[in-house]
Write a structure and sequence with these properties.
Helix content is 4%, strand content 24%. It is mainly beta and 281 residues long. It folds into 2 domains: 199 residues, Beta Barrel (OB fold (Dihydrolipoamide Acetyltransferase, E2P)), CATH 2.40.50; 51 residues, Ribosomal protein L2, domain 3 (Irregular), CATH 4.10.950. The strands form 5 sheets. The chain has a 7-stranded antiparallel β-sheet with strand order 9-16-10-13-14-15-17, with no helix packed on it. Strands 7-6-5-8 form a 4-stranded antiparallel β-sheet, with no helix packed on it.
Length: 281
Amino acid sequence: MPIRIYKPTSPARRQTSVDTFEDITKKAPEKKLIKIKKKKGGRNASGKITVRHQGGGAKQYYRLIDYKRYKFDVPATVLAIEYDPNRRARIALIQYQDGVKAYMIAPVDLKIGDQVLSSKNQIEYKPGNRMPIKYIPLGSIIYEIEIAPGKGGQLVRTAGSAAKLMAVEGGQANIKMPSTEVRLIAADCLATIGQVSNPDAMHIRIGKAGRNRHLGIRPSVRGKVMNPVDHPHGGGEGHNPIGMKAPKTPWGKKALGVLTRKHNKYSDKFIIQRRKNKRRK
């Protein structure tokens, strides 16, 4: 996916880069595979803001992605590569031999006319094919991995991401995640061969505030310019430091360098090696 950089005709344009969408082959989504996406503005059922800095944004339809791909041993043909406003990865419109259409997360180098297959048995090793981890060759690049058999792909789904299959032994597979964390996954879980499409998405620069508003992201205000009643960092005359040893959230909890993961989380036993950039005390 090439990225376009414009001439700096304005301060905002100087910082902005955009996607060229050269890999997109179809603009309008499949009508039977979309649904209305309601806007909540970060509010819960009581109308209280529980997630800050959300609101507005362009209207979007939600694309119904088939993360399970349970039509086993039925070949599907790729009809189109589409843009999805709800994720940075590209999605592929596929059609099975019985005429049923579905969306899947497209891997790199998937093209129109390619055949993809999902199976519980060992099948051909090629991008887009889905099968149990125990049948995938060691060292392979995979994505859209199940956490438990039958739950559908939940791990490694963002643009450009890929995990590496390290070993399979005793019904468990050692998988190196994109974060460099190594964890155990049941060998019967399904995974898709390849790397998630659109790897250059991480290099796109938003460039200006208005573009964030189109994405539904509202402005954030620094705590140090608030009043003491509104934020622990607030108060003082002029440009003051935060006045405490460590930054805090608006609710008084430490914000940087503090581990938030529970020390006895159920999945600890599945983590063989923590990610390398993990901050510890």
